[in-house]
Design brief:
Length: about 450
């Protein structure tokens, strides 16, 4: 792609000379005689580098840099200064300029400087695209479901995302708490900074403290060098604390200090550190009950629950199951390169009538398993795990030997996660016999 350079200078002859020099090196140039004209071209054209005079008729060039970086953060600005105005050049760099050169005296420096600025602008643009792809991926519109319960949760998340308020997500395991947390982050003014997630139940107390706050070399056996904590990694961004109800009560006091004044100590360090992070916490526990049991600090609860969002279980929004099932079917069919066009109507009925203990996570696993086992164009009921049949009403067919055998084979295949060799071994039958019976019973 040809690099485009915008020259903003009210001296038409100088702008024309610069334009010719730059174009001979293969760049495309645009010229503007004022800041207003330059900003218009900036938004109309795909500009990578701006060469701007410090002294412009309608605005100071130093101030113009701020506006340019706000409107096109990936574009780089090189300032043109007159002799004796180096102070303005220094101010320009503080405002975000790539560099500055003196008119007339530094002509031989323009092209090498321009090449470096263009290279950086290209990298910045790639990072800018990656950031905006992440924002698009984590859009609230990407959260699947049309039920009243999920739309209410999304509306609350949209409103709080625009603020810096601490958020507490409440819901059963597998209801999508991390998806909501990341969506809040990527729709906030911190979206270009880090989103760092940690599951508090995955670490013992001492390990979690080291993970969160970091440690100094020699703080404990095995600490051979300094380690950055997740608070430091998430600085200026968002820290997501999943399963906060599992955090040790002593560690809760240290987290409370972070929330109250943004201060913490690394393990084994006497130096006070600062953290500017937004905290989003989540739990599947009843924290009020945990407070009564002495397992959770009441003052921390009040700090975390400034804005709570209850997430509905899948059993509370069963009308969303067909949408979710279809979404995961397309995802896993694409991953496994299979042509599966949909579900048998009986499958959807089974999915809607099932009690989902694991919520969306369990549904996702069921669909993935069905896609792996499917060798036709439709997902049929025989591809569902045995649990989907365990609550069927007892009928005369239940005592039919063929029905019992079919259900037993499905149960064993579910146990072995579809491994037919292992299933045959457990049932003490030959693999050929198992394939024959699966064909006979349409499993």
């Amino acid at each position: 792609m040809q690099t485009s350079v915008l020259i903003i200078d009210d001296e038409a002859k100088l702008a024309g000379l610069l334009s010719r020099i730059i174009e001979l090196e293969g760049y495309k140039t645009f010229k503007a005689g004022s800041a207003k004209e330059g900003l218009k071209l900036l938004m109309q054209e795909n500009i990578q580098v701006v060469l701007s005079d410090i002294k412009l008729p309608d605005i100071n060039g130093v101030e113009l840099i701020k506006t340019i970086k706000e409107r096109k953060p990936f574009a780089e600005v090189i300032c043109l200064t007159a002799y004796g105005t180096i102070h303005d050049g220094v101010l320009a760099i503080k405002n975000g300029a790539f560099d500055y050169i003196t008119k007339g005296d530094d002509n031989e420096k323009i092209l090498p400087l321009l090449a470096r600025a263009a290279q950086k602008a290209e990298l910045q643009y790639k990072l800018y695209q990656i950031a905006h792809q992440a924002i698009s991926k984590h859009s609230f519109d990407a959260i699947i479901g049309g039920s009243r319960q999920i739309r209410e949760a999304v509306n609350l998340a949209r409103k709080v995302a625009e603020t810096d308020t601490t958020v507490l997500l409440l819901g059963e395991t597998g209801t999508g708490k991390e998806i909501f947390a990341s969506s809040i982050h990527y729709n906030s003014n911190r979206n270009t900074k880090s989103f760092v997630a940690v599951n508090c139940s995955a670490f013992a107390k001492d390990l979690l403290e080291s993970e969160l706050f970091g440690h100094k070399a020699g703080a404990f056996t095995g600490a051979v060098k300094d380690k950055k904590g997740l608070l430091e990694e998430a600085d200026e961004g968002t820290l997501f604390l999943d399963e906060i109800g599992e955090m040790n009560i002593d560690l809760q006091a240290k987290l409370l200090r972070v929330l109250e004044c943004g201060e913490y100590f690394k393990v084994g360090d006497s130096k006070l550190h600062k953290a500017n992070v937004r905290v989003i916490a989540a739990t599947n526990r009843n924290l009020q009950q945990e407070i009564e049991k002495g397992n959770f600090r009441q003052d921390l609860y009040y700090r975390l629950s400034v804005f709570t969002i209850p997430l509905p279980s899948l059993n509370e929004r069963k009308e969303d199951i067909p949408l979710l099932a279809e979404y995961y079917l397309k995802e896993f069919a694409a991953k496994t390169n299979r042509r599966i066009i949909g579900f048998d109507s009986a499958v959807i009925k089974r999915l809607e009538n099932y009690h989902w203990k694991g919520n969306i996570r369990e549904l996702k696993n069921v669909i993935e398993r069905a896609v792996i086992l499917c060798d036709k164009e439709m997902i049929t009921t025989n591809l569902l795990p045995f649990d989907f049949y365990s609550n069927d009403p007892v009928t005369e067919d239940t005592y039919d030997m063929a029905v019992v055998e079919r259900n037993h084979i499905i149960k064993v295949l579910n146990y072995t996660k579809g491994n037919k060799t292992e299933a045959a071994r457990l049932m003490n039958i030959g693999l050929t016999t198992l394939y024959r019976k699966m064909e006979e019973y349409k499993i």
